[in-house]
Amino acid sequence: MTWWKKFSFLRNRGEFDADLAEEMRLHIEERSAELSRDGVEPAEALRRARAEFGSQASLGERTRDEWRLRWLEDLLSDLRYGVRSLRRSPGFLAAAVLSLALGIGVNTTLFSLTTEFLFSVPSVREGATLWSARVGGNSHIGAEQFRFLRESNLFQGVAGYREDGEINWRSNGETRSLQAFRVSDNLFDLAGIPLALGRGIQQGDEDVVVISHAMWRSKLASDTDVIGRVLELDGRPHRVVGVLPEDHRSLFGFGLSSDLYAPVRGSLYSLILVIRSADGLSQSALLERLHAAARRLDELFPDRNFKYVQNCRMDALQGLERFKGRTMMGIAAFFAMLLTVAGLLLMIACINVSNLVLARGSARVQEFAVRASLGAGRWRLVRQMLTESLLLASAGTAAGLAINFLLTRMLNRIPLDLPVQLALRMEPDWRLLAYATLLAVGCSIAVGLLPALRISRGELGVAMKSSVGGRLTLRRVLVVAQVAVSIVVLTAAVLFARNLAASAGVEPGFDLDRTMYVRVRLTPDRNQDVAKKAAYADRVQREIEALPGVRALALTLMIPMNDDATHGGSLQRDGVGERIFMRYHFNRVGPGYFATIGVPLAAGREFAAAEPADSIIVNESFARQFFGRGSPLGRTVDKRVVVGVVRDSKYAYLSDHMRPALFRPYEAEVGEGRGTAVQWMVRTHAEPAALVNAVRARLAAIDDSAAIDVRPMRSAMGMAMLPSRVGSALLGAMGALGLALTGIGVYGVLAFSIARRIREIGLRVALGAEPRSVILLVLGECASLIGVGLGVGLLIAVFITKPLAAFLVPDVSTTDPATYAAVALLLLGAGLVACIVPARRALRVDPMVALRYE
After folding, report:
1. Is residue 93 part of a domain?
2. Same domain as 500, residue 371
3. 8 Å CB contact between 216 and 248
4. What is the mean pLDDT of residues 458-481?
5. Which residues have a Cβ under 8 Å from the Cβ of 342 and sit 6 or more positions away?
6. In whole angstroms, what separates CA 549 from the centre of its chain?
7. pLDDT in tens, 804-814
8. Which is more confident, 755 or 483?
9. Does residue 710 contact residue 692 with C-beta atoms inside 8 Å?
10. How many structural domains does the chain have?
């Protein structure tokens, strides 16, 4: 018999019963008619026919059994009974659902944030056949090499883009810098990027742009005639040809967004390669073709120190392939840490609800005893309680998803003051539904299994005589576990709170209080000439130096704690011997840079005004790792002479510690992206904020087409502070919630314990016990629960929080006793608050009432 027919029986049971009764009646009538034809009286014939047919009820039941899905009917019966049972306990239902909703809401929200940030699928056609390619180990490739690959016919298609571009927009007498993705003119067609309005960038397009939905809405007031509108960008008119959809996600992923897409211009650009593979072509086959193309590039563009064929890679644009790099692994580890802490918070909520189920179950012991005496087996009772737990978990999950919806909408709208533009678009999808389903199933087992096994086990005869079970051993164990888990969550929260405080006061190795940065992005058409750019830089330098309050300024390619350029490769020491692999921070700086930002020299000198291009300055860590002992002055790194050694400092992240760094003389570079930006570090006599407007006005008077950004360094550390701020906010909220849930759990156990011991307390009071001894009785029970949980939790936290060291500044240690002392005080305070109500109730016990209490 097919499953579908059985489901049909379940759906149309009334019709089935009517048909079955009619069929049995026809059988009896036919047999009765047959007997009547043989001469039997009609009444006797009907009696004999019924006797021969047998019990209609028994036969009907056996027939129904053949059609039934017993397990499904039992489940539906359990669900109906569970709903009726929970409706009789509205207070219990509300408390349990709220606890689970908070835990599941936090978990699903962090899951949505993680999937959006790490696993968002780019807005493309057939994303599984799009790949990001690298040759020679570099993420970008030059214009000539790109053209060769594009015309090689080795792949179905080759396109490229830059994610770090900028463009100046002149509007209403003001110039501002916009984030722009520079793309090859075939990227939109190759990738199949969808548009909300207009079209994408096509081959042969030059001065056109495709704008983001956010720019169209916020900066262009949702202009319905935006297609064809002309914007002054980089000093040239650009025509808007398209608008991206609101839910557009970039190829680069990780929430990175931009205001617009524009074609690459000039001949000095470099691009990230995007390759479309032919149908059915594997990653290994694609890599072989890429190696063949790289060998040809080595023939066409020979370089003694660089080989395109080395370190070739083909990475998917979506999925786990993104996390092969060390930086990406660090980002993934940060989100894994948040999800782990959220999982611990959900465990606290589950323990809370499990305790509630135990407390409610002790009042239902007689009910289960009666059901067992009527023939219900232990598994039947366990199944009933698990079904009720499933209902609780399902209701908690539904409420948690509502919390997720509210929190994700809020997070989607929070602006972030960062050097890069992020746009999160968290929406419910099948992944969230699957994750929420797993949480619901897991919570139902975690909440209901132990209480079900305890309440359903033997000694039901004793249970019939009393509604109170035995000792609260399991409840106490659960509270101890809850306290221990809460310790771990609180420790993580306190560590990140201390990390945020330490980050705000950390000294990065340079002067934050008397420095600011000045960043000017010039339009390429006005500054394509090195001499013109150098003349502009000289004029700016003179204008700023003439301002009252300015002590010094120096050119720099990278702004400390805002930009980062990590180089890696094999370097040769003193022109002899084997090459040494090094990873180091790289920057180009002008004369007086280190004196301007307050980094002292350890040896040698700074760059001079007319410094030879082959001079370099290294920091102490680079000198120690590359040269070992002895002075590095006068020695060479790839034939570049070391003229100075500076003290170590932090360059991009607050966690930088003894990071090698190498500096070369600043040059007025030309090209897309950074080449059109000129940056200075400025040292002031007084508070830098007082000079911001004056510097901005002086620069605007020099060139009104330039986009100007001036900030004090103390307030310009958004990216460096981001992990500490995000970690502190999220973990702090989870720690507070975990502390509250634990306090509620302790209160529940104590309140239930006091209710069970009313006769004992009343007897003690009747025999002359003082209020102090009653208070000590309650506090002693509270102290035993929290003390054991505190000891176990602190021991676990010492080991489980060690991986968090990767996200903390060096001044904050995961084994610092101050952290654990703060955690212990917080939990003891929460425990004391949880004791107050039960203790007051114990003091108010009337001995005469207590002695009659049952």
Report:
1. no
2. yes
3. no
4. 55
5. 106, 107, 110, 734
6. 44
7. 877 777 778 88
8. 483
9. yes
10. 4
